[in-house]
């Protein structure tokens, strides 16, 4: 009889999940650290999905957080304004999951509407279009009173927790990894490598660019929804250009095209950014120097410059960890 | 007998420059057809027009009696025309094997869902794709390079890899753009026997552009010579080689 073997990535996720739960249960980990872990996992979703567009398919998108914004506002509207659920309502969890998925789908639709006309542009031009799109999304939310306008959408119920977020991050990783290792993923890689040659071995390049964009936008929308239900609010400034650049930095620091790299970088940079906040405050307290928390961005940026100078291809290059790689088809 | 590929009155301008002028020719099924001419005579442009990279200013292209003029390049490939490039276009950071697998893309039937869930039908298809791709590499004497990143391959092997990739799309017509460019004499000999072998093995019609006279005279059954976008001679290799106009285009006028 064949033995049932769990995939190694699932085993790893289960161990990671149990370890964090135990550490948190025994109060070795405080709520603050758990919150940063949750944020890191959401950034994993954002970075891996952007990597599908920028790293795997080779299109340069600068508006990824715009899609997250769509997901955040749409799911927040459903849970907060339409169903008015809170964590104790009956079927609350189901409605939350429904809201998150609808948020993802809405982002995917927007991704299609943006991607279809603009993906015939290349390189810098596409970057400018996606940059513009991100700003439009932000401005639109800023001006819709129904979702709070410039105040943001407040009072979103806190449904995102370690469990829901890690499940979403795990699904994202598996779906995108499996996609990349299929004939569809190979078509996307071909677009990145040489668009003309891809077309001339029978790949419908427009279709695959749009597909990468739509799938990427879907997961960004999911991440946005999770963010909104973690921070209990959605605010236009959370989804601006600077935030998109943060995700972009993650994929470059991790290695463009490497899912493993994006995952590690999402964790490392989220922790680094928070760690610096604490570290700089401690230095200021100890020495009495007039340095505030904003100096962390200077240090953070310097570190990034050094990563790029000394490891231009990013942490992982285009390689994947054994844990992420699928077993080869025999 | 109707031709496999038939070009009728094809003309193409780049701005004011007439790159291809009123080309008409039929390529019958099963032949090795050679297109030769000096640099800048419009050979590669012809290939680009057939494969849909450019659309001709005038004229039509028929493949298996179907009008494919200005169709999308990927559609033309899917209808059965594959090509290689004069300046190689390899997916250089992927492995040699993946280069071939990509070209098997449009034959695959697995949808997104079955690919992501890795259903048995998808796994079987992946197995078949891998097996066929390895066979193609083997045919091109590249088996030992399967796992190697394509950018590490020497030039002659890249040329063969590109031919293998073109064959992976299961073409009926194979367009080779200067397949012998940059090869040493030994590699050229191998290439010639490879092309004749491919024709037999895959029952494919070969249409090639070449500067290398040894290749053209050695394997082509029919030759067309063009200069400045116009046909100056055509026919069997032995006959074409004696045409004064051909000698003139290649060697210059006598006694000037």
From TrEMBL, chain A:
<keyword id="KW-0472">Membrane</keyword>
<feature type="transmembrane region" description="Helical">
    <location>
        <begin position="123"/>
        <end position="141"/>
    </location>
</feature>
<feature type="transmembrane region" description="Helical">
    <location>
        <begin position="32"/>
        <end position="53"/>
    </location>
</feature>
<dbReference type="InterPro" id="IPR043428">
    <property type="entry name" value="LivM-like"/>
</dbReference>
<keyword id="KW-0812">Transmembrane</keyword>
<feature type="transmembrane region" description="Helical">
    <location>
        <begin position="65"/>
        <end position="83"/>
    </location>
</feature>
<feature type="transmembrane region" description="Helical">
    <location>
        <begin position="293"/>
        <end position="310"/>
    </location>
</feature>
<keyword id="KW-1003">Cell membrane</keyword>
<feature type="transmembrane region" description="Helical">
    <location>
        <begin position="251"/>
        <end position="272"/>
    </location>
</feature>
<feature type="transmembrane region" description="Helical">
    <location>
        <begin position="9"/>
        <end position="26"/>
    </location>
</feature>
<feature type="transmembrane region" description="Helical">
    <location>
        <begin position="161"/>
        <end position="180"/>
    </location>
</feature>
<keyword id="KW-1133">Transmembrane helix</keyword>
<dbReference type="Pfam" id="PF02653">
    <property type="entry name" value="BPD_transp_2"/>
</dbReference>
<dbReference type="GO" id="GO:0005886">
    <property type="term" value="C:plasma membrane"/>
</dbReference>
<dbReference type="GO" id="GO:0015658">
    <property type="term" value="F:branched-chain amino acid transmembrane transporter activity"/>
</dbReference>
<feature type="transmembrane region" description="Helical">
    <location>
        <begin position="95"/>
        <end position="116"/>
    </location>
</feature>
<feature type="transmembrane region" description="Helical">
    <location>
        <begin position="210"/>
        <end position="231"/>
    </location>
</feature>
<protein>
    <recommendedName>
        <fullName>High-affinity branched-chain amino acid transport system permease protein LivH</fullName>
    </recommendedName>
</protein>
<dbReference type="InterPro" id="IPR001851">
    <property type="entry name" value="ABC_transp_permease"/>
</dbReference>
TrEMBL record, chain B:
<dbReference type="GO" id="GO:0042941">
    <property type="term" value="P:D-alanine transmembrane transport"/>
</dbReference>
<dbReference type="GO" id="GO:0016887">
    <property type="term" value="F:ATP hydrolysis activity"/>
</dbReference>
<dbReference type="InterPro" id="IPR032823">
    <property type="entry name" value="BCA_ABC_TP_C"/>
</dbReference>
<dbReference type="InterPro" id="IPR003439">
    <property type="entry name" value="ABC_transporter-like_ATP-bd"/>
</dbReference>
<dbReference type="GO" id="GO:0015192">
    <property type="term" value="F:L-phenylalanine transmembrane transporter activity"/>
</dbReference>
<protein>
    <submittedName>
        <fullName>Lipopolysaccharide export system ATP-binding protein LptB</fullName>
        <ecNumber>3.6.3.-</ecNumber>
    </submittedName>
</protein>
<dbReference type="GO" id="GO:0005524">
    <property type="term" value="F:ATP binding"/>
</dbReference>
<feature type="domain" description="ABC transporter">
    <location>
        <begin position="5"/>
        <end position="253"/>
    </location>
</feature>
<dbReference type="InterPro" id="IPR051120">
    <property type="entry name" value="ABC_AA/LPS_Transport"/>
</dbReference>
<keyword id="KW-0547">Nucleotide-binding</keyword>
<dbReference type="InterPro" id="IPR027417">
    <property type="entry name" value="P-loop_NTPase"/>
</dbReference>
<dbReference type="GO" id="GO:0015188">
    <property type="term" value="F:L-isoleucine transmembrane transporter activity"/>
</dbReference>
<keyword id="KW-0813">Transport</keyword>
<dbReference type="Pfam" id="PF12399">
    <property type="entry name" value="BCA_ABC_TP_C"/>
</dbReference>
<dbReference type="GO" id="GO:1903806">
    <property type="term" value="P:L-isoleucine import across plasma membrane"/>
</dbReference>
<dbReference type="GO" id="GO:0005886">
    <property type="term" value="C:plasma membrane"/>
</dbReference>
<keyword id="KW-0378">Hydrolase</keyword>
<dbReference type="InterPro" id="IPR003593">
    <property type="entry name" value="AAA+_ATPase"/>
</dbReference>
<dbReference type="GO" id="GO:0005304">
    <property type="term" value="F:L-valine transmembrane transporter activity"/>
</dbReference>
<keyword id="KW-0067">ATP-binding</keyword>
<dbReference type="Pfam" id="PF00005">
    <property type="entry name" value="ABC_tran"/>
</dbReference>
<dbReference type="GO" id="GO:0015808">
    <property type="term" value="P:L-alanine transport"/>
</dbReference>
